Amino acid sequence: MLQQSTAKTNGIQRPKRLPTPTRRISKQWVPWIFMAPALILFSLYVLYPIADSFMLSFYSWDGLGDKTWIGFDNYIQLFDSESFWTALKNNILWMILFMLAPPIGLAIALFLNQDVAGIRLVKALFFFPFVISQVVIGLVFSWFYDPNLGLLNTILDVFGFQTIALLSSEEYVTYGIIVAGLWPQIAYCMILYLTGLNSLSPDQIEAARLDRAKGLKMLRYIILPQLSPATFIAVVVTVIGALRSFDLVATMTAGGPWGSSTVLAYMMYEESIFNYRMGYGAAVAVVLFLIMAVYIAYFLVNMLRSER
Amino acid sequence: MYPTPIKHASPLTNILYRISLPITILLWLMPLAAVMMTSIRSIQDINQGNYWGWPTSFNFIENYNMVFQSTEMGQYLLNSMIITLPAVLGAVALSTLAGFALAKYKFKANIWMLAIFIGGNFVPFQILMIPVRDLTISLGLYDTHMGLIMFHVAFQTGFCTLFMRNFIVGLPNELLESARVDGVSEFKIFWYIVLPLVRPALAALSVLIFTFIWNDYFWALVLVQSDTVRPVTAGLSSLQGQWLASWNLISAGAVVAALPPVALFFAMQRHFIAGLTLGATKG
């Protein structure tokens, strides 16, 4: 195919032109022509909406009628509202507990990084939860936590503990949802570490073994430094995953009981779609975006540095 | 290799390790196994509270038949297909073009364009929600398959462009240069040289974003409201509301909804994992 096409273009015998200024300019545009479709669509659906949401957060709007400029009123209301602080507190809880995913993922990866019969299938089965929709995971765990019939209470009962209605307890509900969210997140971190373990330098490990480095010391001083790219990605995707949590909250509790398990992402959805407070919802989204922007910026700076 | 290969350990350790593998798998997938067990139980079992014992009868065919006949599950599955396949195709096509531009042309804004695509990929959906919903309504695409397809193509383009760019950067420059010396046009270079070489990456990327788009729930809630368009994720959660006590049917529905991405994952496992880590570790 390649040869054919070159032959064809050669056969036409284009007159060899000198590079004129017009031609050089048009060459500058080549990458932009390749990028144009992606860039146009991305600007329309991602870049412009971010700016638009910022604008919208200064208006009062029910989604249909006229927008009224109200300055920072949405934000003032937001910082006065109890449910905002509940949501923010829950988001922070998500972030803290989600940080368990990288170390647990690493532990499982270390456990599975062996060459025995059937290990590929075992790895695939461990990774399994990441492939399933969060709606299904929410359903699976609602079932698991069910106060009358769920497996959790069946187990608690067998061992003689007090049973618990986890998803209707204001105190524990968020922990219950976070555990459900950790399940696929651990699987994700595990696969990142498994790939990292595959690309370790054997020389360094051998050298360390000759120096009689063993067990945890070996892990701490030889292995972990080499795994740092995997750790970096695992931490970033985990933080972003924690801040993005929406599907599980929506399917397992819809923010309940009495708003105690809501997170910023769900609060935003609820205020805009159910309460028709678009401007207020946009303000919640802006706060969430600004928190996330810190991590996005951190990721970008790191990445761009390694590109240069 | 780290940890030390278990082959060098004592036979006892070896046996214990091999026994521990299926046990940990069983514990790890227990919530899922419970749902699969429930999906083949009879309603009598459910009503009598026989959730964890041996099923009195295996209603595999009855339950799954019921899911397809008395609900819109079949339609939801079809909708998910109608939405996911073109969206994967579109996102992969656009991002291969853009990835090529970012990988093989030097221009001032290059690194910034890359940053924008990556950054956009990480933003919370909620900051896009109201404007995207308005845009979709004003384009006349609200509550249509096309509305969801357009959004998914646009959004996934961010991640996909990073992915394709990282792959294309590794292709040898000499190949492109010698074609240029021969006077081959830039578009033909893309079509006849670059495209055949990126085929493995296209497969990996397609498998990966198929599951991303298939599993989307948020946009299915925001951009769609009728059963004729609703994909399987949103469909499943609406069924959950209708069938409060019929856990066996809800479970069967959940298994059905999860099946396509799971099947794809097991069929193309190597591509999937390569995709996940190429997008991530090169970053």
Query: What is the count of distinct domains of chain A?
Result: 1
So what's the oligomer here?
Answer: heterodimer
Radius of gyration of chain A: 26 Å
CATH topology of the largest domain in chain B: MetI-like fold
| Major β-sheet annotation of chain A | 2 strands, antiparallel
Query: Major sheet of chain B: size, sense and barrel closure?
Result: none
End-to-end C-alpha gap of chain B? 24 Å
Mean pLDDT value of chain B: 87
Regarding CATH, which class of chain A? Mainly Alpha
Number of helices of chain B: 15
What is the alpha-carbon Rg of chain B in Å? 24 Å
- The CATH topology assignment of chain A is MetI-like fold
Extended strand count of chain A: 2
Strand proportion of chain B, as a percent range, falls in under 5%
Summarize the structure.
Chain A has 308 residues and is mainly α.
Account of the protein in words:
The complex is a heterodimer of chains A (308) and B (283). Chain A is mainly alpha-helical. Chain A has one domain: MetI-like (MetI-like fold), CATH 1.10.3720.10. Chain A is 73% helix and 1% strand. Chain A is built from 15 helices and two strands. In chain A, helix 3 crosses helix 15, helix 9 packs antiparallel against helix 12 and helix 12 runs antiparallel to helix 15. Chain A is globular and about 75 Å long. The N terminus of chain A is likely disordered. Chain B has 283 residues and is an all-alpha fold. Chain B has two domains: 53 residues, no CATH class; 213 residues, Orthogonal Bundle (MetI-like fold). Helix content of chain B is 76%, strand content 0%. Chain B is flat. The relative contact order of chain B is 0.13. The model of chain B has no long low-confidence stretch (mean pLDDT 87). The interface between A and B is large, with 109 and 102 residues.
